[in-house]
Amino acid sequence: MAPTKVTKICCIGAGYVGGPTCAVIALKCPHITVTIVDLNQSRIDAWNSPDFQLPIFEPGLEDVVRQCRDRNLFFSTDVDKGIRDAELIFVSVNTPTKKTGVGAGSAADLNNVERATRRIAAMSTTSKIVVEKSTVPCRTAESMRTILEANSKPNCRFDILSNPEFLAEGTAIADLYNPDRVLIGSLQTPEGLDACESLKGVYANWVPSEHILTVGLWSSELTKLAANAMLAQRISSINALSAICEATGANIDEVAHAVGTDSRLGPKFLKASVGFGGSCFQKDILNLVYLSESLHLNEVAKYWRGVVDMNEWQKRRFGQKVVKELFGTITGKRIAVLGFAFKADTGDTRESAAITLIRDFQSERALVNVYDPQVPQEQIWQDLQEASPSSSLDTIQKHVTVSPSAISALYKSMNKPAFVFDGRLVFGNTERERLANIGFKVISIGRGDSI
Ligand SMILES: NC(=O)c1ccc[n+]([C@@H]2O[C@H](COP(=O)([O-])OP(=O)(O)OC[C@H]3O[C@@H](n4cnc5c(N)ncnc54)[C@H](O)[C@@H]3O)[C@@H](O)[C@H]2O)c1
Ligand SMILES: O=c1ccn([C@@H]2O[C@H](COP(=O)(O)OP(=O)(O)O[C@H]3O[C@H](CO)[C@@H](O)[C@H](O)[C@H]3O)[C@@H](O)[C@H]2O)c(=O)[nH]1
């Protein structure tokens, strides 16, 4: 049998991955009808909103949705119909770290994946290619296949592929237009390889074939965890060195630049920071830690856990540095936190270092002003409450204000000496000097030479 030429795709999960990924597929493949389904009514309403107030902020996304929506791109809460009509289904649901039960704190919670898989089995009356897009532990595809096969109807076969997503938030559209690689894992059986060819045919509409890598299912699943673990490891390595720089007078930007010119290491992902955040790095490393522990590879688990431990230390260390520089106490002092999301160009606050920092400032009874144009106020309050479950919202709001602009942090209105703490190395030497000329004392992560 020849590989199916896909014309109808359904994506289960209309979040940061499902939304942009399938919107770009719709744009690049006008002959394919793409329906993105989700149980969350308000999210789907936002995707369908007449004024394109989309549920996530991502540069370039609105333009893609404007071009395709209601042409060959549809958003719906009718999950069952989406499943029934499709030839190929992406499962792009969230897989957060488990909060309770076996593996709590490190294992991935696969409940959403299982629910979606059971729904596919229950609703399908024709054969489907089912694609794992969510980040999952190694061998999850096997569990999905077992569930699908145990519940399938006659003449209905399911082929499972792994196709992890490597986009980064803030650059998702550019990453999807021009990916370093698309990775597809399949069983190495004739049917598995045919299914792989079908999915490859979708990406081949815009991705050069040498950038589409095909591997075995388990390698594909593990590659996603490995890639994130190794990226995060670079950040923890440079952050560990930033502490040495502060203590010795070396400059972390100079060290990172010089190290990164070694072609074996390369210049990217060497920016020291207040710590990595986002919904993926910590979750996926902990997922790898749990997998290693389950395989009784305790030294391997310990090795990867170190990357997360270093990140936690870096976040705490930055908060402690602020207290130390402000003469040992920040009680009653007003601190402006510019940026609440986990990085620039996104409104996503999951695991943002700003949350830990503000929680630590609150415990010192500082007065905090938060400014982030991409993050709605309600999200900030929700995150801060989750970070300090023993404090009421009233108590938090006595210490934290959400500012509509960054103006209130201007030098003239500040107590002197006025400090700027640069936790993302956004200020180079010129900007540092300019701030110092205004009168600010500038303290940057990874630099012993405050000015
Ligand atoms: N966010 C990223 O940058 C990124 C990048 C690569 C991979 N990933 C991985 O992709 C997956 C999705 O991440 P995300 O950030 O898009 O999550 P998200 O929370 O933004 O979106 C997931 C969506 O799935 C929906 N959902 C959950 N269970 C469902 C079900 N049974 N039926 C229908 N809808 C359901 C939720 O309502 C939610 O809207 C995760 O496994 C994540 O690790 C994320
Ligand atoms: O040199 C650097 C690079 C990043 N960061 C921080 O690391 C975090 C993660 O940044 P980034 O990787 O750019 O964003 P994510 O959207 O989390 O993307 C990561 O996680 C995704 C989800 O799995 C993967 O698909 C991407 O390939 C992977 O880069 C952010 O807090 C950044 O500020 C640094 O501190 N220093």
Automatic annotation (TrEMBL):
GO terms for molecular function: NAD binding; UDP-glucose 6-dehydrogenase activity. Belongs to the UDP-glucose/GDP-mannose dehydrogenase family. One of its GO terms (cellular component) is nucleus. Keywords: NAD, Oxidoreductase. It comes from Gymnopus androsaceus JB14. NAD(+) binds at residues 13-18, 38, 43, 93-97, 134-135, 169, 280-283, 350. GO terms for biological process: glycosaminoglycan biosynthetic process; UDP-glucuronate biosynthetic process. Substrate binds at residues 165-169, 224-228, 264, 271-277, 342-343, 424. This is UDP-glucose 6-dehydrogenase. Its EC number is 1.1.1.22. Pathway: Nucleotide-sugar biosynthesis; UDP-alpha-D-glucuronate biosynthesis; UDP-alpha-D-glucuronate from UDP-alpha-D-glucose: step 1/1. Coiled coil: none annotated. Residues 336-429 form the UDP-glucose/GDP-mannose dehydrogenase C-terminal domain. The active site is at C280 (nucleophile). It catalyses: UDP-alpha-D-glucose + 2 NAD(+) + H2O = UDP-alpha-D-glucuronate + 2 NADH + 3 H(+). It comes from the Eukaryota.
